[in-house]
Amino acid sequence: MDGISIGLWLAAAIIGWIAFARPEKLHRQGLKLAWENIALMGPRITMAIVMAGFFAVILPTELVAKWLGSDSGMTGIVVGSVTGGLTPGGPMLAFPIVVILSNAGAGAGPLIAYVTAWSVFAIHRLFAFELPLMGGRFALLRLVSSLVLPFLAGILAMLLDGAFRGMLP
Questions:
Q1: I need a surface site. Which of 69, 72, 93, 123 has the fewest CB within 10 A?
Q2: How confident is the model over 145-160, as pLDDT tens digits?
Q3: With left for phi above 0 and alpha for psi between -120 and 50, is residue 89 left, alpha or beta?
Q4: Is residue 52 part of a domain?
C-alpha cells in the first residue's frame, strides 16, 4: 500500500469513528450508503480497468510516440483534444487511458489537452444532458466558448513541461 491508500484508510477510519461516536449511530447509515455505492460502482470500475488493460496491450507505442509524443507539437495537442472530447464515460475510463498513453510515450501537452477536452467537451454529455435539458442554444454557446481551452491547456503544459523538466518527478 502506498501513502495515498494509507491516508484514505486512515481518513475513513477517523470519519467512521466520528459517525460511530454520534448518539444517532450514523455509522450504520454510512456503511449502508457505502455498500450501495460499491454495488453500483464496483462493476463499472472493474470493467474500466479491464478495458484499460486490453487497450494497453493493443496500443502500438510507436503510434503513440508519433501522434502524441513530446515532439508531436500542435498535432499531438489537436489529437489529444479531439480524442479526449470523444472519450465517453467518467474518470474510471479516462484516467486509466491517460496512464496507458503516458506509459506508451505520450507527452505532457497532448495528455493535458486530452484530459481538458474530456472534462470540458465530453460529447457524450452534450447529447445525453446538455441538449435535452438546456437546449441547443445553451449547448452551442457552451461548446463554442470552451473550444479553445484544451488547446491552450496543452500548449501551456508543453511549455511548462520544458521549464520544469528535472525539477519535478
A1: 123
A2: 999 999 999 999 999 9
A3: left
A4: no
State pTM to two decimals: 0.74
Residues 42 and 63 in one domain: no
Domain assignment present for residue 36? The answer is yes
Cell 481551452 belongs to 149
Give pLDDT tens digits for 105-129.
999 999 999 999 999 988 888 888 8
